[in-house]
Amino acid sequence: MTIWVPSLECFSGPRYRAIAQSIGAAISAGELAPGERLPPQRRLADALGVTVGTVTRGYAEAEHHGWVTARVGSGTFVKQPAERTVFDMAWRQNDDSDVIDLSLSLPPPHPLRLQAFSDALKAMSESPSAVTRGVSYLDARGAEGHRERLAGWLAQLGMSLNADELLITQGGQHGISLVLSTLLRPGELIATDALTYPGAISAAQQAHLKMVGIAFDEEGMCMEALEAQCARQPPRLIYVTPDQNNPTGACLSEARREQLVALARRYDSWLLEDGVQYLPAEQRGTPLYQLAPERTLFVFSTAKVLAGGLRIGVLRTPNVLLERLAAGLRAQSWMVPPLMVDIACYWIAQPEAASLLAWQTEELAARQQIVTEMLSGYTLGRSHNGSNVWLTLPEGSRAIELCKRLQLQGVKVSSAEPFCVGSTPAPQAIRICIGAATDRQALTQAVSVIKQCLAQPPLATITV
Ligand SMILES: Cc1ncc(COP(=O)(O)O)c(C=O)c1O
What we know:
By secondary structure, the chain is of the alpha/beta class.
């Protein structure tokens, strides 16, 4: 009897995980039907040329994802739709849409994300301390216990921050906006990469600040250009995303981090370091808050590692600014709802949080590889585990036209326009948010549409 044997080539990472992913993909594709029995482990191990232990681990991982169920003595079976939890199905809810939307920077979807949030909600409703905190007014900086738990989690992620220097914010965007509106006066100047996170541009506009875009290359912001700006008019604050600029993916080199700090000290500028676009510790450079703790504010958020809807961020500040920022936060919203912080703190304390992040890190690496291979020959800005890819279009192509064509073919991406600071001309490039695709299959489909559209000759547009 022939057995189902997956092809593991398109799944990177350890073999056991590739087996699990191939099971998930085969179920989505209808290749494995509900109720179907997976091949006996030894036979599959022989067919794949791996050990039985690897297949056992792969099946266990597939069970962990909620795709299959093991029955003692009879084998492992694809779950019937009725047996799946509501979250195994809900995470695919957008699959019915005709559009593959890769225009928003999101962590890759997974049923465990919904399950973790649901578990935390349930646990909170039964926790007397969380419920009591949830109905109380607390310190504007956030409860001490919350700050300590978040600092402990950040330490596990390789960010060494002291709970005493933290404020809890309503996400990264709020952290940026709080800093700009509290520390700077209308008309003061911020320097940032000429292409930067649009939320920072709008926060600066809201606070009536001036923003100047500094030239950059693949190593991040150019220090000669920043120095020239400082000599002309020193910025009050320099906003940077040193690890994985959004949108270009550039990471600031170590040498430039040192130069940036030296310039900020020479011209007495604050540094606002944005770490929201998460990369694993081994791929991050030395944090600016470590190089220049006396002048660096650091923004982090749970958005790209847990879920955007939680709206929980962490702002690290030099001690001298703590009271001013707490007063600013109090003036804006008094405090962040403690219930949401409790939910985040419960979530990060569960072992599933670490396995979800490990899955996400590998998943993004696999997605990066798919895009790199499919778009080989094109100029790509990317990080190994990054959630975005920045594609510079070949000579003669126009990003606006490509985006329109893609939209007609059911694929949404962003052009450079929203990321341009001031009147910086938009380069002919697009940002592809690879994390936003439901799965690798959807990503592959979208990238093949992008490739086809790139190969089409430009449309002649004539106007009089
Ligand atoms: C660089 C950067 N900073 C900040 C944010 C905002 O994060 P949050 O969703 O936590 O407000 C984003 C969101 O995409 C981002 O890309």
